[in-house]
Amino acid sequence: MGVVNLTKGLLRMGDCIDHGQKGTGLGYGSARYPTLKVKGSVRMHRAVYCLHNGLRLEDIAEQVVMHTCDNARCINPEHLRLGSQRENMLDMRNKGRGVGNIRYTLEQKRLAAALVKSGLSVSAASRTCGVGRVTIINFMKEGQVNG
Predict the structure, then answer these.
(1) Kind of pairing, strands 64-67 and 16-18?
(2) Is 87 helix (H, G, I), strand (E, B) or coil?
(3) What is the pLDDT, as a whole number, of residue 136?
(4) Taking the complete model, does pTM exceed 0.85, yes or no?
(5) In angstroms, rounded to a whole number, what is the distance separating the alpha carbons of residues 118 and 129?
(6) What's the average model confidence in pLDDT over 65-70?
(7) What's the pLDDT tens digit per position in 112-133?
């Protein structure tokens, strides 16, 4: 894994900035950030938050970096904020993103469907848009899926 150039490989998805990597199963990207003076790779949204706010990773060690856009692939500093794990779980529950209660925006589903129609695989569109594969398939079949 090399050093990430934040101007290369980034994708725009509405106001979100996609990290452009395969990402983890949940969509988070990771990379090496020599400017943060840590060994190994770091979750990109945490590193971007620190770099944008002039902080070190140690400064936010006990906190989570939350996505106001609810897109784990997003590294737009304007969409990132600090919070506790409890705040993050409450935010997730209040937005209907608890286990078995995942909701995607219509914009996410439309973009994923458009990518599939243009020739991208459902799996690749799922990773790119942060939308579940079954949701994409159902959306394309039915034309819409509830909220």
Answers:
(1) unpaired
(2) helix
(3) 85
(4) no
(5) 14
(6) 90
(7) 899 999 999 988 888 888 888 8
Q: What is the Cα–Cα distance from 121 to 113, expressed in whole angstroms? A: 10
Amino acid identity at 16: C
Query: Can you tell me the distance from the alpha carbon of 102 to that of 78, in angstroms, rounded to the nearest whole number?
Result: 23
Kind and range of the H or E element at 108? helix 106-117
Q: Which residues of 7-23 are buried (b: 16+ CB within 10 A; e: fewer)?
A: eeeeeebeebbbbbbeb
What percent of the chain lies above the pLDDT cut of 70?
A: 82
| Residue found under tokens 């609810």 | 70
Contact assessment for residue 30 and residue 41, using Cβ atoms and an 8 Å cutoff: yes
Cα–Cα distance, 122 to 101 (Å, whole number): 21
Residue pointed to by tokens 């950030």:
33
